[in-house]
Amino acid sequence: MSWSALPAAPPSLLDSQGQPQHGRYQGCIAQLDWLALPMTRWQRLLRPLRHKRWQYLALTHTDYVIGLAVVDVGWTAAAFAYLFDRRQGRILADVAADSFPQHGAQLADQPFADARFAGRELTVRFERQGSRLAVEVSSPQLRLAAHVGLDPMPPVLAAIGPANWLAHSTHKSTALAVSGFADCQGQRFSLDGAVASLDYSNGLLARRTDWRWASAHSSGLGFNLQQGYMGEAENACWLQGKLYPLSAVEFTFDPQQPLQPWQLRSRDGLLELQFSPEGMRAKNQNLLIASSRYIQAIGRFDGYLTDPLSGTRHVVQALSGVTEDHYARW
């Protein structure tokens, strides 16, 4: 693997012949449109059901972790929001909603832009306001109002890959500034001192999709890791404001005891981490037309990341983040 800087993101997902521009890039892809992708008649019929999009925001702090997302799976939509109190070691709020049989989500075909889910028990809204992203959550368990700064923005990872059906794209940010508050169980949590990170994904995925994922960020160091349908395409780390690709990453853990430590190692030897869970979200839902089984552990990472250019080893110590083991039939 060459350790030169990642190339600039192309203006669109597809080239002039309609083929996906597979690769890892730095920056945002402005045009996220799969319509010109060559497809068989059967694929075109399935396309509306296979088009998956989501926007996810993580807010990490020494005292808490907050996660929320709007998800469009093509034939229906969903949203979730949670708050994990690290001081107490427990989840104070975990609310999720779907809109089946209706479709209750709207997501722009643009990274880190507008997205909205409106349900009776949960409303999640992202609104792009110039150089910031306004975020709101409204539910009986959790209310949140935040502004995420997008300018200046550290390098964004953009990846396009063949995935497990036709193609998939994703954009990942590292640490972003955030302000605002969250109200939960009679407590107000200030977002001052928290670190925000964003994930926007848009692609054409198979009916059955599974992955393992890890993400954690601080002002000078961060990483996004996946083992699954995107292969190594979205594996990357941020060190002192620079973005580097990573090779395939192996996740070693016991699915029957997910609160035991996880081990993560990259094949190129640049990353070695231990993840120590502090709490966990889990769901095992088996419906007639869909199912979802996931474990999302919340905790701390310890280990090292090596700068591939200088060889400098950066210590990772008590870095707050998440890991995930997810299977979806959607």
Q: Which percent band covers the strand fraction?
A: over 45%
Helix percent band: under 10%
Oligomer: single chain
Structural class: mainly beta
- Which strands sit side by side, in order, in the main sheet? 19-18-17-16-24-23-22-21-20
Architecture (CATH level 2) name: Beta Barrel
CATH superfamily: AttH-like domain
Distance between the termini: 34 Å
Q: Helical region count?
A: 1
- Supply the CATH class: Mainly Beta
As for the CATH topology, it is AttH-like fold
Largest sheet report: 9 strands, antiparallel
Indicate the mean pLDDT.
94
Strands, count: 24
Total domains:
1
The H-and-E topology, N to C, reads as EHEEEEEEEEEEEEEEEEEEEEEEE
Radius of gyration: 19 Å
Low-confidence stretches: none
Description:
With 330 residues, the chain is mainly beta. It has a single domain (23-35, 42-329), classed as AttH-like fold, CATH 2.40.370. The protein has 1 helix and 24 strands. A 9-stranded antiparallel sheet has the order 19-18-17-16-24-23-22-21-20, with no helix packed on it.
How would the blueprint of this fold be written?
Layout: E1 23-26, H1 41-50, E2 51-60, E3 64-72, E4 77-85, E5 90-98, E6 105-107, E7 115-118, E8 123-129, E9 132-138, E10 142-149, E11 157-161, E12 167-172, E13 178-184, E14 187-190, E15 195-204, E16 208-217, E17 221-228, E18 236-239, E19 242-245, E20 249-252, E21 262-266, E22 271-286, E23 291-306, E24 313-329
Sum this structure up briefly:
With 330 residues, the chain is mainly beta. The protein has one helix at 41-50, and strands at 23-26, 51-60, 64-72, 77-85, 90-98, 105-107, 115-118, 123-129, 132-138, 142-149, 157-161, 167-172, 178-184, 187-190, 195-204, 208-217, 221-228, 236-239, 242-245, 249-252, 262-266, 271-286, 291-306, 313-329.
